[in-house]
Write a structure and sequence with these properties.
alpha/beta; single chain; six-stranded parallel sheet; five-stranded antiparallel sheet; elongated
Length: 214
């Protein structure tokens, strides 16, 4: 079942995030107060809504309680970001991600309930979309136009099995380059060692093969 995600704030980051989530199969509601921006993205998301999120009643009317996730992408609007995060958490949204323009803003948004803070100079909308839509992605790095480097948690069905049994290169088109467990990253990989629940894998794969890890 597709995840329902609201993206509030449609600047460059928000538009890329909303469009990326939708392309990856999410049910996306995109929200901004600018009519032209909302109109420009309406055919790239499930639903596009005009709303002034600095108004608490407008935010409450969005129906965020129906969402699996909310991304507050207004890094330069502290008031609007606070309002959106607060209402989302009051409506019991399981996961709220918020963009912050600096560390101070990030601390404020985290204090009022944001589950994850991102900073525009460190993140891109598409990178964040990939992380949000995966239960296993911890980090995502683009190497070039074709390749990417991922830090991932093992899928539930991988736990207790070793790399030989899993045959990840054949089944998922990924190459494991390092393993981290018990807080230690090791480039030497024992293919016969079973994966544990706290194991993390550093893998390289082609972007076109990301679909195999969903």
């Amino acid at each position: 079942m597709a995840k329902s995600i609201a993206v509030i704030g449609l600047g460059r980051f928000g538009r890329n995030l909303a469009g990326g989530l939708y392309e990856m199969g999410a049910d996306v509601m995109a929200v901004d107060k600018n009519e032209e921006i909302v109109a420009s993205i309406s055919d790239k998301v499930t639903q596009a809504i005009i709303a002034d999120v600095s108004n608490p009643e407008a935010v409450k009317g969005l129906g965020l309680s129906e969402m699996d996730m909310v991304a507050v992408a207004m890094g330069s609007d502290l008031t609007g970001s606070i309002m959106a995060v607060m209402v989302a958490k009051e409506q019991n949204v399981p996961y709220v991600l918020a963009k912050a323009s600096d560390e101070r803003m990030g601390q404020i948004l985290r204090r009022i309930g944001a589950d994850k803070i991102i900073y525009p100079e460190e993140e891109t909308g598409l990178r964040t979309a990939r992380i949000m839509l995966s239960d296993s992605f911890l980090e995502f790095f683009e190497i070039d136009d074709n390749l990417c480097l991922l830090e991932i948690k093992p899928k539930k069905e991988w736990i207790g099995k070793n790399l030989i049994e899993l045959n990840l290169r054949e089944k998922y088109k990924i190459n494991v380059v390092a393993v981290k467990d018990h807080s230690e990253m090791r480039s030497f990989i024992d293919p016969e060692r079973p994966l544990e629940s706290d194991t993390e894998l550093l893998v390289i794969l082609e972007k076109a093969d990301l679909k195999y890890l969903k």
